[in-house]
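Hi all, long-time lurker, first post. I run a small reading group and we've been trying to get comfortable going from sequence to structure in the token notation. Rather than ask abstract questions, I figured I'd post a concrete chain and ask someone more experienced to write out its structure so we can walk through it together at our next meeting. Sequence below, copied exactly:
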Amino acid sequence: MKKLFTLVYLGLFIWSCSSAPYTGRSQVILVSEGQETALGDDAYKHVLRDSVITRNPEAERIVRKVGERIAAVANKPEYKWEFTVINDPEMVNAFAVPGGKVAAYTGIFGPARDEAGLAVVLGHEVAHALARHPAERMSQGLLLQLGGVGLGVALGKNPAMANQVLQAYGIVGGVGVALPFGRSQETEADRIGLILMAKAGYDPRVAVDLWQRMEAGEKKDGAKGGRPPEFLSTHPGYETRVQNIRSFLPEALSYYQPSNARLETLPSPESLDTPAAKSERELLKRMEAINRAVEQPNGERAVVEALARELRLSPQAIVQERQQLQTGYGQYAGLRGVSELGRGSLRQIADDYQRGRSWSEITASNGTRVNELIVWFGDLIRTTNSMGQQLQRLRPATR
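-- Answer (accepted) --
Happy to help. Here is the structure in token form:
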């Protein structure tokens, strides 16, 4: 059996070895680029459906300008590049998925300050896609699972011992392999991102200032105490990150051709926020509260029974409908709530949601408003909590 799994591993490594761009690091990737892109497209659509998209022309223009300059030097003509701005001043982040879909949250505009700072962030995120880090992580997960299966087979004659070893294997796989591997990818993305921004005409030295501002902002917000130790984090600590970036600068600067063009300042997150965006974010938080409730013991039952009471439907009908719509319970509750408060059919409302229409648009076109839906969710959450408490009291006592 050991020989069999050794041969499987060897075959996988020979078939799937590749190297990361610029760094030349050897990689094991078991997922095709086509599969990776399809998964990335689905993930991107999913995130945007449950986000508040900024339609501010100035913010969109600058993000697209910086993104397209980086895309032009990324040498990926087969990518269908797309750049979106998500209105969330509390989310200091951006992301890119395989295939060229990129999104920046307005919260990153504060520390980024201008297009050069934004180029640091977008260059880093695009680097993840170019280096195929998502596919590498998925492949790592597959190999860890295969290793777990191997141990399970090898120890199959002693089920109790097998379970203990498999559990330990998962812990070691997480802290010993997966997390450090994630940190190495982050460091590699920093290195490649500096090269991309330099090739795009942005001074890579601004990256040091950006990460120092990010650290200062985190300290100001009192979030530093909540950061895990570096060995339990998928991201390098700020001090480690800045040290690495300084060591990468000579290489990145060799690609840099200074430009006389004036750097444009990014609009502040606060100036981009609107009452409508705040209402939509509050609605999304309440949907997420329902999704979190489902994960609790007896949580799905509590949510389903609360929905059944609010909607005057049978629990079975709710479970079946939600499965057919292929959404989380929070999103299903939102769709059902619009139908309950307004005049549209559930199918029509669900079609609007799947097409990516905002909740403001969905509610307005179906005879209700976001704020009314927020109030309805408040009632649903209270009923869910009440149901959860009742179910908790009904649980048999355990010794």
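A couple of things your group might point at:
The longest strand covers residues 82-86.
Confidence is low (pLDDT under 50) at residues 1-11, 148-176.
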